[in-house]
């Protein structure tokens, strides 16, 4: 797995790794299940997902999954993904999805992580970052706005759920 580590001095994002499983399971709550994963995690499911994430890094697949980390011990407080080749996205668009555990919320950490991965997405050739959120997920929409994204319309997901789009130009993005 590549040695990717992005930091702004407060937040560090680095690839998810097998030893993140326990912290992820401990941090998951109803909000993460509702807005991000769609169902409660199991130890087996998290381990399989972390293996998939590692394989995506190793094979240069369309997913780049990062842990959001804070402090000198780099405590895992959430996750953030970049995905290319997502249904409904135009060439050059990169989907950004994130979730914080309760211990990380309300401190601006998601906004910082979004800015870090946007800079990384630009180095991968991304031209525009897209954050898609359900209209009721006001906290996620607020993160998008604080990170410089602008409203970009509303579509229906494949499951019929309405999604508000937030867009950010990545050309020239360094952070």
UniProtKB/TrEMBL annotation:
Domain N-acetyltransferase: 11-172
SUPFAM superfamilies, per database record: Acyl-CoA N-acyltransferases (Nat)
InterPro entries documented for this protein: Acyl_CoA_acyltransferase, GNAT_dom, Ribosomal_N-acetyltransferase
The protein's name: GNAT family N-acetyltransferase
Native species: Streptomyces akebiae
């Amino acid at each position: 797995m590549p040695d990717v580590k992005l930091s702004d001095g407060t937040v560090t994002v680095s690839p998810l790794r097998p030893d993140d499983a326990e912290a992820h399971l401990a941090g998951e709550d109803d909000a993460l299940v509702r807005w991000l994963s769609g169902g409660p995690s199991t130890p087996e499911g998290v381990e399989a997902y972390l293996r998939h994430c590692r394989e995506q890094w190793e094979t240069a697949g369309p997913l780049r999954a990062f842990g959001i980390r804070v402090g000198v011990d780099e405590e895992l407080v959430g996750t953030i993904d970049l995905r290319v080749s997502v249904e409904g996205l135009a060439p050059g668009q990169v989907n950004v999805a994130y979730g914080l555990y309760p211990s990380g919320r309300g401190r601006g950490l998601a906004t910082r992580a979004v800015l870090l991965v946007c800079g990384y997405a630009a180095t991968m050739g991304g031209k525009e970052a897209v954050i898609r959120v359900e209209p009721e997920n006001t906290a996620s929409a607020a993160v998008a706005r604080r990170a410089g994204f602008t409203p970009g319309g509303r579509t229906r997901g494949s499951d019929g759920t309405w999604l508000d789009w937030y867009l950010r130009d990545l050309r020239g993005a360094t952070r």
